[in-house]
Specification:
- The chain is of the alpha/beta class.
- 31% of the residues lie in helices and 29% in strands.
- A 6-stranded mixed sheet has the order 6-7-8-3-9-10, with helices on both faces.
- The longest helix is centred in the middle third of the chain and has 16 residues.
- Pfam families: ABC_tran (PF00005), DrrA1-3_C (PF13732).
- InterPro entries: AAA+_ATPase, ABC_transporter-like_ATP-bd, ABC_transporter-like_CS, ABC_transporter_ATP-binding, DrrA1/2-like_C, P-loop_NTPase.
Amino acid sequence: MQPILQALNVRKAYGQHVALDGVSLDIPERSIYGLLGPNGAGKTSLIRIITQITGADEGEIRIRGEKLAPRHIAEIGYLPEERGLYKKMKVGEQLLYLARLKGLTRTDATQRIKAWLQRLDLTPWADKNVEDLSKGMQQKVQFVATVLHEPKIIILDEPFSGFDPINANLIKDEILALRDKGATIIFSTHRMESVEEMCDNIALINRSRKVLDGSVGAIRDTFRTQTYAVEGRGRLLVVHPDFEVLEHHERENGHFYDVIRLHAGTAPNDLLRYLIGQVEVHAFRELIPSINEIFIRRVRETMPETIREGELVP
């Protein structure tokens, strides 16, 4: 299946600073695509090229195989990290104004606004000025403005910033519902738990270059280390040519917790059979690195050695 959006060898520089250096991406249709990277990696520069706020110096963006053109703006909804609402306008009036700019009729816009305000518990605030709303409510209003015209491609830059857990979960459910209805979601975030929960595919950009991409499952499989956590009761002394004990923890009442790595060619069932013959097994699970751990590892690997020992803030 052809990707709905492709970045082909995109390069962008601001003076002497190279923001993007030959970045290529294939974003599948009807998917949630995480665009990850440290601050200053180039994510926002790529988003601004896709949304035609700025242009690439080299390379191109394609929508369904067609070179990006002004007509594609109608198919894109963009929620920037820097929120931009008119504080003195009433919520309902502002949403109607923005919807009309996207080509909706007054009747269609009014119906959609009412439905979205109800879904996000904003109906009582429709006649209030934006400045009277809390930061979280303002963000919900801007989310509505982003998706009101039912774009095929929705770009969200830090969509959960400033939300309490309840509203973050509400927006998460709406994003998943939009994907299920056919939209393609591209979102940039530092919340790695959101990536684990929501993303079908991710790309990691660091120091202007793509350093990792693929499906979340395939990427985690790539970083598997054949390491297992074992919890149980009894006295476990593993001295075996096929296993290596990395950690051993004695607990109360004869319980233990061990971390064991398999040697090449050894299957998990081989370890489990050995354990069952030695102790009472209560839990047995593979330790696969999280996306956050993979993120930090790959970023550190691509940092110059002179700064690799410094503090990394994802």
